[in-house]
Amino acid sequence: RNYLETFNSTAPVGTTIIVNVPSAIRWTGSKTDCVEFIYGLYANGCLNNGRIDIKSIATFIQKTFDIDLGNIYRIFQDIRIRDERTKYHNKTVTNLVSLMDYSDEHPRFS
Hints:
Shape: globular
Distance between the termini: 30 Å
Oligomer: single chain
Number of strands: 0
Mean pLDDT: 87
């Protein structure tokens, strides 16, 4: 199904039209990983020039990736007290560097 549709309307120019599109991409990692990802986005200030709260980011991610995270604040508390506080991000860095190394060795697969 093509979700890009022509829309004729008498709505004024500049009106934002929101279309709900079923997400074809789902979060399949753990809820804890997702919450760490959300807090990473927040900590880096890379959304809305850092002018956005955690709840708004979490709501966006939950809707986008079709996941119910429950109490993200409680999960964050659990993340803060574990031994490896940035477990998901550490794994992301390791995997990204490995991918880059592989791409360096096999340029046609980049």
